[in-house]
Write a structure and sequence with these properties.
Blueprint lengths: L19 H8 L5 H17 L13 H12 L4 H9 L2 H4 L4 H8 L1 H10 L10 H18 L2 H15 L6 H21 L3 H15 L1 H35 L5 E6 L2 H11 L10 E7 L2 H14 L8 E2 L12 E6 L5 E8 H9 L2 H4 L13 H11 L6 H12 L3 E5 L5 E5 L4 H8 L1 H6 E6 L2 E3 L11 E5 L16 H31 L13 H8 L5 H9 L5 H8 L15 E3 L7 E3 L11 E6 L3 E6 L5 H4 L6 E6 L7 E10 L4 H11 L3 E9 L4 E10 L2 H12 L4 E6 L3
Parallel strand pairs: 2-5, 11-15, 12-14
Antiparallel strand pairs: 1-2, 3-4, 4-5, 6-7, 8-9, 8-10, 13-14, 13-15, 16-18, 16-19, 17-18
Helix pairs in contact: 1-3, 2-4, 3-4, 3-9, 4-7, 4-9, 6-7, 7-8, 7-9, 8-17, 8-18, 9-11, 10-11, 11-12, 12-13, 12-14, 18-21, 19-21, 21-23, 21-24, 22-23
Length: 716
């Protein structure tokens, strides 16, 4: 019995865990004797290691890894994967180390086991962090060897089958994680059989009442409809025979989670889910797929707008099939899938087909291309935090895609909502980093343009161009987001080091010194003493506000200089171009040449406030974090300022105020209107200005308007 054919058997209460005899009997049907013996050795080793351990259900613990291996055997996985499956909990739950596994079974099996092992030995701040870090390790291990995720998915399938032994709160938690992470991963890798079982079990455990209601209603409604299926199946089979096409016709019923997901996605009642029943026709060649489509449309009228060609344009996980919906007897809608045997195998096993043990078979590299491409994108997150990995990978787990074309006609698959920048990074990271413009259907379009199915996109690059930090606010693909964040981290580090050097020089002026006057190795020595790598790392920490410059200045002083303090601390010069490590307070909106002070904010760098800001008094309790600051003569940028405009209520007054602002070469970033009485309102505007003179010019222009009562600048 195939793995797919057992899916309905587990639903009422799970299946009895298989024993080693049943497993080895299954393995002997497709593995050579030495591979089977290797799996037996792994069983003996694991049984001894887990001796005395019980599962929550009361069964001996060894039944779990054997069941995991049995699930993988149904997918005809290779011997190394099966041995690793039996050993996968040994390192975590017994005193055996990964090195001992490697010594007994070799590095290949040990690496798979290590990739699956959870991180329970490490202390985390909370469970979410532990889960994210464990997920990060699993995903990066998966990049090295896809068999890691195969063992993990099979492990999750068996845990879900036996979830009834867990307390209700734990059941819901595991079920939610299964639906959010593991079922989408199985889908992304094209392992349809495992995806279906995880979804069904997760749905039943997370929403038991909804599960029972849908199950009951489907049983009630299937009556007469189900009687038509054998007749339709015979009609299609006869049509194939008359056309001389060798194929098989299979009737199928949608799984409960698929019905529930469709109800939620389309916001419809159960009675409105039309394609509960379906048929599948499996033939030998692609040509026959299209011929069968014509035969089916000749027998039964197709439903308009319900045809999808996943053969010419496969899904992102490699799935290929023709989908059409037919009007059956009495107008009953039926979904029909038409595919080749090879497509069917890929639909059921996905990337697992690559590791299926088949004598004499060569590596089916082309079939794995899409999954490998996704794994390559995951590998680019090597240096990201655990939370970033989890966030970025989840973006790509859900196959809601848009298909666009390159100028050469190649198809690119992108997440729905993807922009021209996402397309550029999908082509190549270098193209994304250097893109400056885009053409959509041969017309220039903004880089943030959201792409639609069927569009042709061309990216224009320029030598020396760099990513714009603003892109991070609208890209949706994990690859684009990771590449931009990586660039911003490097940019932020460079700016932080530069600012840190200026802050340290400012602090050293108190002692009539600067960094250049110090011995060359002095900064590195102090950095190492503080647990940092080198002097640049120390300057970065100063620039980010994590190390106070005055305290570091005293640490780097040559001892004889300590007592030769000079005059007062020199102010920090603000150019307005410092970028990511200098921020301007939104409570008081400073602009040149307002008198300002700088606050050293840990992790953010320096925050500039007006010296009469109401929040400054509260911050003064930390004098070591305050730095005198002055504007450089020419700040080559615009600054955000906030003004309040009191107006009489009259139609079109807001548009007139906005037009007056635009006439003074000023951009509006945000606007809010608050009624003040029956006849007046207050318009709060955030605008971009060059300096205080520019701001005064704008305010005068607004004040001259007949419906404006008063204009004032906001002060916290």
């Amino acid at each position: 019995m195939s793995y797919a054919s057992t899916l309905l058997g587990f639903l009422p209460g799970g299946r009895r865990a298989p024993g080693i005899a049943q497993l080895t009997s299954k393995l002997e049907s497709y593995l050579p004797p030495d591979h089977v013996e290797r799996v037996r050795d792994a069983y003996d080793y694991a049984e001894a290691a887990h001796k005395g351990q019980k599962r929550r259900s009361g069964e001996p613990y060894i039944t779990h890894p054997v069941a995991v291996a049995d699930i993988l055997a149904d997918l005809r996985m290779d011997g190394a994967t099966l041995a690793a499956a039996i050993l996968h909990d040994v390192v975590e739950d017994t005193g055996v180390s990964t090195a001992e596994i490697a010594e007994h079974f070799g590095g290949e099996i040990a690496e798979i086991v290590d990739g699956v092992t959870k991180l329970d030995q490490i202390r985390f701040k909370n469970r979410q962090e532990a889960q994210a870090e464990s997920f990060r390790k699993m995903m990066l291990a998966m990049v090295r060897d896809i068999r890691v995720i195969m063992v993990k998915l099979a492990d999750r399938v068996h845990n879900m089958r036996t979830l009834g032994a867990m307390p209700p709160a734990k059941r819901r938690l595991v079920a939610r994680e299964t639906l959010d992470i593991y079922a989408p991963i199985a889908n992304r890798l094209g392992i349809h059989s495992i995806k279906l079982e995880l979804e069904e079990l997760g749905f039943r455990s997370l929403y038991p009442k909804r599960y029972r209601v849908i199950e009951r209603e489907l049983k009630r409604s299937r009556g007469n409809q189900k009687e038509f299926l054998p007749k339709i199946t015979r009609n299609l089979a006869d049509a194939l025979k008359r056309a001389g096409i060798d194929g098989r016709v299979e009737a199928r019923e949608k799984h409960l989670f698929s019905v529930y997901a469709k109800m939620r996605r389309k916001k419809v009642q159960l009675s409105e889910v039309i394609d509960v029943f379906g048929l599948r026709i499996v033939v030998a060649t692609v040509d026959e797929c299209y011929r069968v489509l014509g035969l089916a449309h000749g027998l039964y009228r197709p439903m308009p707008g319900r045809f999808k060609d996943y053969v010419a344009i496969p899904r992102v996980n490699g799935y290929q099939s023709l989908h059409t919906t037919l009007f059956g007897p009495n107008g009953m809608p039926l979904e029909l899938q038409i595919r080749t045997s090879e497509m069917h195998e890929m639909a059921e096993s996905g990337i697992a087909a690559h590791w299926a043990y088949k004598t004499g078979e060569t590596d089916r590299g082309a079939r794995q291309e899409r999954a490998r491409e996704w794994l390559k994108n995951v590998a680019q997150l090597q240096d990201a935090s655990a939370e970033e990995v989890m966030e970025n990978v989840k973006v790509d787990l859900f196959p809601d895609k848009v298909y666009v074309f390159t100028p050469k006609g190649d198809i690119m698959r992108l997440p729905r909502g993807a922009t021209c920048v996402d397309f550029a990074y999908a082509v190549h990271t270098g193209v994304g980093n250097r893109c400056v413009a885009a053409k959509v259907d041969r017309r220039l379009a903004p880089l943030r343009t959201v792409l639609r199915n069927g569009q042709t996109v061309e990216i224009i690059t320029a030598k020396g161009a760099q990513p714009n930090p603003a892109w991070a606010s609208f890209v949706v693909s994990a690859k684009a987001r990771a590449a931009i964040r990586q660039y911003l981290k490097g940019l932020r580090r460079g700016e932080a080091i530069d600012l840190g050097g200026r802050l340290l020089n400012q602090a050293l002026e108190e002692f009539k010194l600067n960094i250049r006057a110090l011995p060359p190795e002095r900064l590195d020595q102090v950095a190492v003493a503080l647990g940092l790598e080198d002097g640049k790392d120390l300057l970065e920490k100063i620039g980010l506000g994590e190390r106070p410059a005055p305290l570091v200045a005293r640490r780097v002083l040559p001892r004889e200089e300590d007592l030769h303090e000079g005059g007062p601390q020199a102010p920090l010069a603000i150019a307005g171009t410092e970028g990511l490590v200098v921020a301007y307070a939104r409570c008081c909106f400073p602009v040149p040449p307002d008198p300002v002070v700088a606050y050293l904010s840990s992790g953010r760098g320096v925050v500039i406030h007006r010296d009469n800001c109401g929040n400054v008094a509260g911050f003064r309790k930390q004098p070591e974090k305050w730095i005198p600051a002055v504007w450089q003569k020419q700040a080559n940028r615009t600054f955000r300022s906030e003004i309040k405009v009191h107006v009489t209520n009259r139609m079109g007054v807001l548009a007139q105020v906005a037009a007056q602002i635009a006439a003074n070469q000023t951009n509006i970033d945000h606007v809010n209107v608050t009624p003040e009485g029956d006849d007046t309102s207050m318009i709060t505007l955030e605008i971009d200005v060059r300096d205080r003179g520019h701001l005064a010019q704008v305010m005068r222009a607004i004040k001259s308007m007949p419906d404006v009562i008063e204009v004032e600048r906001t002060l916290a």
